Amino acid sequence: MSFEPDITRYWIEVVEVGLDSTPTKENWRKLMRDVITHFPGRGTMFEEKYLEGVAEGEARGEARGEAKGILRVLEVRGLPVPDDVRDRIIGCTDLDRVNTWLDRSVTVERAEDLFTEDDLAS
After folding, report:
1. CA-CA distance, 75 to 83, in Å (whole number)?
2. In the chain, is it the N or the C terminus that has fewer CB atoms within a 10 Å radius of its CB?
3. H or E stretch covering 19
4. Model pTM?
């Protein structure tokens, strides 16, 4: 007998909802990682993981867009961008850091000046 993955996931989540706030719920959550949710708004582990993934994906997408903006500002200003600097900018997924670099890109003398000692340490 084979089970449809969607039906199986549905019943896995039914069990979690039924466990409510029992000690067993945490064990169940550890066993059932990475399954999609069938009960939106119920705060199940599956929903939490899904929403975390969505938020992380959005932040990475925003960071990529800002990184392109940094490179564009440097290009328009006529500043050469070495490959290692370009890779660092494009590879950064920390939106706050990328936004800081975007702010700096308007005034730096060289592309390498985007980075502070804190940036270089990480």
Report:
1. 13
2. N
3. helix 5-19
4. 0.56
